[in-house]
Amino acid sequence: MGFFEKLKQGMSKTKTSFDEKISNVFKSFKKVDEDFLDELEEVLIMSDIGMDTSIKIMNNLRQRVKKEKIQDEEEIKQALREEIIQILSKVDRGLKLNTKPSVILVVGVNGVGKTTSIGKIANRLAKDGKQVVIAAADTFRAAAVEQLEIWANRAGADIVKREEGVDPASVVYDAIKITKEKNADVLIVDTAGRLHNKKYLMDELRKIQKVIQKEMSDCDEEVLLVIDGTTGQNAISQVKAFKEEADITGLVLTKLDGTAKGGVVIGIVEENNIPVKFIGVGEQIDDMEIFNPEEFARAII
């Protein structure tokens, strides 16, 4: 199964929800007029896209309906897809990993799928011929290191770990040293799951970033925030909060399979101006792909 098929299958609940609601609007109105468009706007808002983003999409759609005299259901859906693609494509989605070594710092709250995402990203990079080192800098939970080690082995990546409770920044320091010794291409740094309002955890994150900036000052760095797609509107506020504490360069979306809340992706990108770089739909190591706005739009509408 190709990734678009996986994405389409994984996003089926979101697609069904969207399509049913749009079809119901068409059943309720004889023509595409202002009442119809108001109802469609309500559908977008209720589909986790978010109030501001839904209004922006509908303002553009209203202009198109008037200019192009759109009345057909499929034409409305195509126009919606194009508006969504435009939002999701407005920020650069490319991974900036041009130096050797480069570093990816992975952050997020507990339970969003950080560890599995790291394993899947490492696997993708390894398939591209890159040598990967993973720093197990979540030293609060022994289970986190064990789980990360399993994923690192699956991906064929080296892992740098220390005993539970040590300073995470010292693990990162060791990992940088080993990455340079091995002449590896990419260092991926796992961090403890943290809530943005826990000051000591955010201080620790800043300490890790200082070590990276000091020891790898000339290296490309991605700071990826992992977001659980099932959290809906909460994900938008989560991104905003992390943005205030760290220079987030991209998002990794997980658990989009099995949720009807996939529309939140559109609101996250529009309101935060941060690109989605990876999307996960499934449990297997290959179920992580570079985000494609066109495929995403086709998968949900």
Straight-line distance between termini = 20 Å
- Provide mean pLDDT, rounded: 86
Report the C-alpha radius of gyration, rounded. Answer: 21 Å
- Compute the number of strand runs: 8
Shape annotation: elongated
Low-confidence stretches: none
Regarding quaternary structure, how should these chains be classified?
single chain
Structural class by helix and strand composition:
alpha/beta
Helix count equals 12
In what range is the share of β-strand residues?
5-15%
Q: Layout of helices and strands, plus pairs?
A:
Layout: H1 3-10, H2 12-28, H3 34-46, H4 51-68, H5 73-89, E1 102-107, H6 114-127, E2 132-137, H7 142-155, E3 158-160, H8 168-182, E4 186-191, H9 199-215, E5 221-228, H10 234-245, E6 250-254, H11 264-272, E7 276-280, E8 288-290, H12 293-300
Parallel strand pairs: 1-4, 1-5, 2-3, 2-4, 5-6, 6-7
Antiparallel strand pairs: 7-8
Helix pairs in contact: 1-12, 2-3, 3-4, 4-5, 4-11, 5-12, 6-7, 8-9, 10-11
Explain this structure.
The structure is a single chain. The chain is an alpha/beta fold. It is built from 12 helices and 8 strands. It has helices at residues 3-10, 12-28, 34-46, 51-68, 73-89, 114-127, 142-155, 168-182, 199-215, 234-245, 264-272, 293-300; strands spanning 102-107, 132-137, 158-160, 186-191, 221-228, 250-254, 276-280, 288-290. Helix 1 (3-10) packs across helix 12. The two termini are 20 Å apart. The mean pLDDT is 86.
